[in-house]
From TrEMBL:
Keywords: Actin capping, Actin-binding. It comes from Ceratopteris richardii. The keyword Cytoplasm does not apply. One of its GO terms (biological process) is actin cytoskeleton organization. Heterodimer of an alpha and a beta subunit. This is F-actin-capping protein subunit alpha.
Amino acid sequence: MDPLGAEEEELSDEQKIALAKWFLLKSPPGEIQYVAKDLQGVLLNDNIYQAAAQAAFPVYNKEQMLSVEMSDGSGQVIVCEDGEIDANHFIDLRTAQVATIDHIEQVCTGVRPAADSELPSAYVEEYRAAIDTEVVRYIEEAFPRGHCSVFATNGKDSDENGGFELTVVISSAKFSPKNFCNGRWRSIWKVQLHGDLQTVDLQGNIKISAHYFEEGNVQLDTAYDCKDSSIFQGPAETASAVVGIIQHHESEYLAYLEDCYSKLSDNTFKELRRKLPVTRTLFFWGNAHQMSMNRELAREISSK
C-alpha cells in the first residue's frame, strides 16, 4: 500500500522478463552466472527466468566474446558475431570445425566438420591462416590467458587479385572473484585486403571491462577506435604487417591507460575533494607522506 492507500500494481510477466534480461545483460565480465542465480531467487518463477535467460545469454556471450573449450578438446572456439553460423553454432576456422554452444551453461556440447560452403577459398585461406599464425604468436606474448580467431567475413570465395575482408578477434579474461575483481579485454580488427589497389586497410575496436567489488562497486568500461593501412603483399609479409599494426595500436592504448591511472591519485581524486575540509583548513598534500610516517612512529612508540 502506498501513502494514499492505493495498491501497488503488480508487474506483468513481460515486464519481469524485460527487467531480468536487463540485469543479465549488464552483468560484469564472468559474473552472469552469479547474477542469474540471484535472479532465480528473486523471481521464484522458473518460466520467467528461463524466458529472460534464453533471450539474454546468447547476446551476452557474443558481446563478451566468450571463449569456450571445444567438446573434443581440439581447441577453443570464440563465441562472437563474426563466427556465428546460426544461434547455437559457431565456426573455428583454425580447426575447420563448427561448435554447438549451450549459451546458458556456456559450454560446447558437440562439434562437427565445417561444410565446404562454410570455408573460405584456398586463396583467402592462405592469407587467413598466415595472419592467424602471427596473431597466435602475438597473443602468447601479450595475453597469456587470451584466445584469438581470424574469420573470413566478406568475399570468402574470392580468387587471386580479388578483394576480401578478414576479421581478427582477440578475447582475454582474468577472473579472480576471491580477490574481488574480474575483467576482460576484447578487440576486433576488420582487415580489408584490396588486391587490385595493392593496399590493406585496418579498422580496430578495443574494449576493456573491469569490475572491482571489495567493500564497494567500481567498474571500468572503456573503448578505443583506430584506423591504419599497409601494403598488400604475399601472405607472410601481409600477416607480419597486419599483426605489427595491431600490436602497435594495442600497446599504445595500454600505455595511454597506464599513464592516465598513474596520475589518477595525484590529479583526478584531488579534484573530487572539497577545496576546504570541514575544519576550514587547507590540507597540504606535500606533507601527506611525512604525516603518515609521523603517525606510524607515534603508534610504534605508544605500543612499547
